[in-house]
């Protein structure tokens, strides 16, 4: 279940997550009603994230 960074970002933004902060190659997203934050490593929009990273992001965002 590898996904590209741009696809993960589209999924998060479609669910209401917005970019709160960016440090280097890591983007942090927040949500108006969901607690916590979601960190997405951004090493290029076409970079594919490993399945365990994708699973962790989806779990943090409560999308899984």
UniProtKB/TrEMBL annotation:
MF (Gene Ontology): endonuclease activity; hydrolase activity; mRNA binding
Domain of life: Bacteria
InterPro entries per record: HicA_mRNA_interferase, HicA_sf
Keyword Hydrolase: yes
Family the UniProt entry places it in: Belongs to the HicA mRNA interferase family.
Pfam families for this protein: HicA_toxin (PF07927)
Keywords: Endonuclease, Hydrolase, Nuclease, RNA-binding, Stress response, Toxin-antitoxin system
Protein name as it appears in the record: Putative RNA binding protein YcfA (HicA-like mRNA interferase family)
